[in-house]
Amino acid sequence: MSDKHSFDFVKTMSQYGVVLGCLVGFFGTIPLTLTWFDFSRILPVIAVLLMIGLCGGLVGLLYGGVSGYVSGWLIQIVTRFMFQDMKRQAVYKVAVGSITVGVTFIIILVGSMWLNLDFEQVFARSVSPVELQTLGMMSLVFAVYASQRVATQYLRDMDIR
To answer: Is residue 1 part of a domain?
Structure first.
């Protein structure tokens, strides 16, 4: 059995946050962009879709990295101090999921408040709140998925069945 404190929650959650945030950003911005373009000129539209997808992926990478890093630290602290003995695995997984949802939701709220600032000189159109909520829900689902993968990996590494 390995040492209980050797599992690196911060690194693992940050990796999941970066990868899944990038996917949310890339694939989340493409449907939004498709609603804004006239398809009479398909080649420029495809080029713009690719550029917007990459930019969305970078923004998602930033959001996911920050969210994963903060979630990882909190999960590590909670695991170390509140779950010394792992008798209730379901409670542990719920706690890990709740921490991740809370942190991701706060990061999304802070980002949406930042986007509510006046960016008329940068963006031609503003993103509607419904579109942002859709991306936020997708981010929350991916964050819960990542947290449950990390919790399962931790329990497996600790030989707790």
So the answer is: no
Structural domain count, the chain: 1
Please give the radius of gyration of the chain, using alpha carbons only, rounded to the nearest integer.
19
In 3D, which of 58, 91, 65 has the Cα closest to residue 10? Answer: 65
Report which secondary-structure segment, H or E, holds 95.
helix 89-115
* Torsion angle of C-alpha atoms 63, 120, 135, 77, degrees rounded to 10: 30
pLDDT digits (tens, 9 = 90+) for 111-154: 777 766 655 544 555 666 677 778 888 888 989 999 999 888 88
Calpha distance 98→101 (Å, rounded): 5
Q: Is residue 3 in some structural domain?
A: no
Site of tokens 């940050």: 14
